Amino acid sequence: MFTFVVGIDTDVGRAETQAETIASMPLEADEVTAVLVHSFAENREGGTVEQVKSVRVAQSRLEDAGIEVTPEGYGGDAAKAILNVADDYDADQIVVAGRKRTPTGKVLFGSVTQSVILDTERPVLVCSGDD
């Protein structure tokens, strides 16, 4: 079994790109599982990960390709959530979606992708959601 841990934010386009990339890999779909991780900055209303549109879109695309999907919702820091889930599932690969930011923007606002890459020994695939 090959396990992907996929960090999904709220951007539907990036989620579609991540799902398409995984679905197009030369792996037997019935031997692949994808754990979709969404981190809630705030969840005062008690929403579930299945209510996040980008998660639903990625899940639907992956399931259409015959890939088993497990959605996981967490609160707090997104990079830490992705890394913790990757450890919990002993992931073979982490998949994140990058977005264009200036170096100054990364310093001021942080970068989940950068943190994941720097803080793991696991392979990380960065998908671009930009055209």
Automatic annotation (TrEMBL):
Pfam family, one: Usp
Residue stretches making up the UspA domain: 45-127
Domain of life: Archaea
CDD domains attached to this UniProt entry: USP-like
Family affiliation: Belongs to the universal stress protein A family.
Protein name from the UniProt record: Universal stress protein
Organism lineage: Archaea, Methanobacteriati, Methanobacteriota, Stenosarchaea group, Halobacteria
